[in-house]
Amino acid sequence: MSNHRVIIVHGTEGSPESNWFPWLTAQLQEGGIEVLCPQFPTPEGQSLESWMATFSEEVGELQQSDIVVGHSTGVIFLLHALQGASLPVKASFLVAGFVSPIDIEKYDRLNKSFLEAPLDWNRIRENGGAIHLYAGGDDPYVPLSCAVELEEMLRVTAHFIDGGGHLNSETGYTSFDLLLSDLLAIVSS
Q: What is the mean pLDDT of the chain?
Protein backbone atom coordinates (compact mmCIF):
# COMPACT_ATOMS: atom_id res chain seq x y z
CA MET A 1 0.00 0.00 0.00
CA SER A 2 1.41 3.37 -1.03
CA ASN A 3 1.53 6.19 1.51
CA HIS A 4 0.47 8.65 -1.19
CA ARG A 5 -3.00 10.11 -1.60
CA VAL A 6 -3.95 11.27 -5.06
CA ILE A 7 -6.59 13.99 -5.00
CA ILE A 8 -8.46 14.61 -8.27
CA VAL A 9 -10.43 17.84 -8.74
CA HIS A 10 -12.89 18.06 -11.65
CA GLY A 11 -13.92 21.26 -13.41
CA THR A 12 -17.06 23.30 -13.99
CA GLU A 13 -20.05 21.04 -14.78
CA GLY A 14 -17.76 18.06 -14.12
CA SER A 15 -17.96 15.11 -11.75
CA PRO A 16 -15.79 12.24 -10.48
CA GLU A 17 -17.41 10.12 -13.22
CA SER A 18 -16.41 12.40 -16.09
CA ASN A 19 -13.49 12.34 -18.54
CA TRP A 20 -10.42 10.26 -17.53
CA PHE A 21 -11.02 10.50 -13.77
CA PRO A 22 -12.66 7.03 -13.30
CA TRP A 23 -9.92 5.42 -15.42
CA LEU A 24 -7.12 7.16 -13.48
CA THR A 25 -8.78 6.30 -10.17
CA ALA A 26 -9.00 2.60 -11.14
CA GLN A 27 -5.39 2.49 -12.41
CA LEU A 28 -4.05 4.01 -9.19
CA GLN A 29 -6.23 1.97 -6.86
CA GLU A 30 -5.04 -1.22 -8.58
CA GLY A 31 -1.54 -0.14 -7.53
CA GLY A 32 -2.63 0.31 -3.92
CA ILE A 33 -2.78 4.11 -4.05
CA GLU A 34 -5.55 5.92 -2.18
CA VAL A 35 -7.56 8.20 -4.48
CA LEU A 36 -9.95 10.96 -3.43
CA CYS A 37 -12.17 12.46 -6.13
CA PRO A 38 -14.83 14.61 -4.46
CA GLN A 39 -17.95 15.95 -6.13
CA PHE A 40 -17.85 19.74 -5.98
CA PRO A 41 -20.99 21.90 -6.34
CA THR A 42 -21.40 22.76 -10.04
CA PRO A 43 -22.97 24.56 -11.79
CA GLU A 44 -25.45 25.35 -8.99
CA GLY A 45 -23.74 26.71 -5.90
CA GLN A 46 -20.33 26.85 -7.60
CA SER A 47 -17.93 29.24 -5.87
CA LEU A 48 -14.42 29.20 -4.51
CA GLU A 49 -15.90 29.25 -1.01
CA SER A 50 -18.23 26.26 -1.58
CA TRP A 51 -15.42 24.27 -3.21
CA MET A 52 -13.05 25.06 -0.34
CA ALA A 53 -15.69 23.83 2.11
CA THR A 54 -16.14 20.58 0.14
CA PHE A 55 -12.36 20.12 -0.08
CA SER A 56 -11.94 20.69 3.65
CA GLU A 57 -14.66 18.13 4.41
CA GLU A 58 -13.63 15.46 1.88
CA VAL A 59 -9.83 15.85 1.83
CA GLY A 60 -8.84 17.85 4.90
CA GLU A 61 -5.35 19.33 5.19
CA LEU A 62 -2.95 18.71 2.32
CA GLN A 63 -0.01 16.49 3.31
CA GLN A 64 3.56 16.27 2.01
CA SER A 65 2.96 12.86 0.43
CA ASP A 66 -0.16 14.06 -1.44
CA ILE A 67 -0.33 14.35 -5.22
CA VAL A 68 -2.97 16.72 -6.59
CA VAL A 69 -4.56 16.48 -10.04
CA GLY A 70 -6.82 19.20 -11.44
CA HIS A 71 -8.70 19.60 -14.71
CA SER A 72 -9.97 22.93 -16.10
CA THR A 73 -11.51 24.93 -13.20
CA GLY A 74 -10.00 22.26 -10.94
CA VAL A 75 -6.59 23.77 -11.75
CA ILE A 76 -7.32 27.29 -10.47
CA PHE A 77 -9.06 25.76 -7.46
CA LEU A 78 -5.96 23.69 -6.62
CA LEU A 79 -3.75 26.76 -6.98
CA HIS A 80 -5.86 28.44 -4.28
CA ALA A 81 -5.68 25.26 -2.13
CA LEU A 82 -1.88 25.06 -2.56
CA GLN A 83 -1.55 28.73 -1.67
CA GLY A 84 -3.35 28.06 1.62
CA ALA A 85 -1.56 24.79 2.43
CA SER A 86 0.72 24.67 5.46
CA LEU A 87 3.00 22.05 3.84
CA PRO A 88 4.13 21.50 0.25
CA VAL A 89 2.64 18.51 -1.61
CA LYS A 90 4.76 15.97 -3.49
CA ALA A 91 3.46 16.89 -6.95
CA SER A 92 0.80 18.79 -8.86
CA PHE A 93 -0.67 17.70 -12.20
CA LEU A 94 -2.55 20.57 -13.83
CA VAL A 95 -4.58 19.85 -16.97
CA ALA A 96 -6.27 22.34 -19.35
CA GLY A 97 -6.14 25.06 -16.72
CA PHE A 98 -6.51 28.83 -16.67
CA VAL A 99 -6.13 31.74 -14.26
CA SER A 100 -7.66 34.43 -16.50
CA PRO A 101 -11.14 34.72 -18.04
CA ILE A 102 -11.58 32.40 -21.03
CA ASP A 103 -14.04 34.76 -22.79
CA ILE A 104 -16.97 32.35 -22.69
CA GLU A 105 -19.52 34.35 -20.71
CA LYS A 106 -21.30 31.40 -19.07
CA TYR A 107 -18.06 29.90 -17.72
CA ASP A 108 -16.46 33.20 -16.77
CA ARG A 109 -19.58 33.92 -14.69
CA LEU A 110 -19.45 30.50 -12.96
CA ASN A 111 -15.70 30.86 -12.37
CA LYS A 112 -15.83 34.52 -11.24
CA SER A 113 -14.97 33.90 -7.56
CA PHE A 114 -12.02 31.65 -8.51
CA LEU A 115 -10.67 34.29 -10.92
CA GLU A 116 -11.12 37.28 -8.60
CA ALA A 117 -9.37 35.85 -5.53
CA PRO A 118 -5.66 36.80 -5.58
CA LEU A 119 -2.95 34.20 -6.19
CA ASP A 120 0.44 34.26 -4.47
CA TRP A 121 2.64 32.64 -7.12
CA ASN A 122 5.73 32.34 -4.92
CA ARG A 123 3.74 30.44 -2.33
CA ILE A 124 2.06 28.27 -4.96
CA ARG A 125 5.44 27.35 -6.50
CA GLU A 126 6.81 26.56 -3.02
CA ASN A 127 3.83 24.34 -2.16
CA GLY A 128 3.20 22.69 -5.55
CA GLY A 129 6.01 20.13 -5.42
CA ALA A 130 6.93 18.76 -8.85
CA ILE A 131 4.53 20.70 -11.09
CA HIS A 132 3.36 19.16 -14.38
CA LEU A 133 1.28 21.18 -16.83
CA TYR A 134 -0.75 19.77 -19.75
CA ALA A 135 -2.73 21.62 -22.42
CA GLY A 136 -4.46 20.73 -25.67
CA GLY A 137 -2.98 22.60 -28.60
CA ASP A 138 -6.52 23.20 -29.90
CA ASP A 139 -8.62 23.61 -26.72
CA PRO A 140 -12.07 24.97 -27.75
CA TYR A 141 -12.71 26.41 -24.27
CA VAL A 142 -9.37 27.56 -22.88
CA PRO A 143 -7.24 29.82 -25.13
CA LEU A 144 -3.59 28.84 -25.64
CA SER A 145 -2.61 32.12 -23.96
CA CYS A 146 -3.96 30.69 -20.68
CA ALA A 147 -1.54 27.76 -20.81
CA VAL A 148 1.33 30.12 -21.65
CA GLU A 149 0.37 32.33 -18.69
CA LEU A 150 0.44 29.28 -16.38
CA GLU A 151 3.85 28.27 -17.79
CA GLU A 152 5.22 31.72 -16.98
CA MET A 153 3.68 32.01 -13.52
CA LEU A 154 4.59 28.47 -12.44
CA ARG A 155 7.98 28.54 -14.23
CA VAL A 156 7.42 25.15 -15.86
CA THR A 157 7.08 23.97 -19.45
CA ALA A 158 3.69 22.61 -20.47
CA HIS A 159 3.10 19.41 -22.42
CA PHE A 160 1.12 20.69 -25.42
CA ILE A 161 -0.90 17.84 -26.90
CA ASP A 162 -1.86 18.18 -30.58
CA GLY A 163 -5.52 17.32 -31.15
CA GLY A 164 -6.08 17.07 -27.40
CA GLY A 165 -8.77 19.73 -27.27
CA HIS A 166 -9.85 20.31 -23.66
CA LEU A 167 -8.24 16.95 -22.74
CA ASN A 168 -11.69 15.63 -21.87
CA SER A 169 -14.03 12.92 -23.13
CA GLU A 170 -15.18 15.17 -26.02
CA THR A 171 -11.78 14.58 -27.63
CA GLY A 172 -11.55 10.93 -26.58
CA TYR A 173 -9.79 11.51 -23.26
CA THR A 174 -11.45 8.79 -21.22
CA SER A 175 -7.90 7.70 -20.37
CA PHE A 176 -4.70 9.74 -20.10
CA ASP A 177 -1.58 7.57 -20.39
CA LEU A 178 0.95 10.43 -20.35
CA LEU A 179 -0.39 11.79 -17.06
CA LEU A 180 -0.50 8.30 -15.52
CA SER A 181 3.11 7.52 -16.45
CA ASP A 182 4.31 10.92 -15.19
CA LEU A 183 2.38 10.42 -11.95
CA LEU A 184 3.67 6.88 -11.39
CA ALA A 185 7.24 8.13 -11.92
CA ILE A 186 6.67 10.56 -9.01
CA VAL A 187 5.14 7.85 -6.81
CA SER A 188 8.13 5.56 -7.33
CA SER A 189 10.73 8.33 -6.83
A: 97
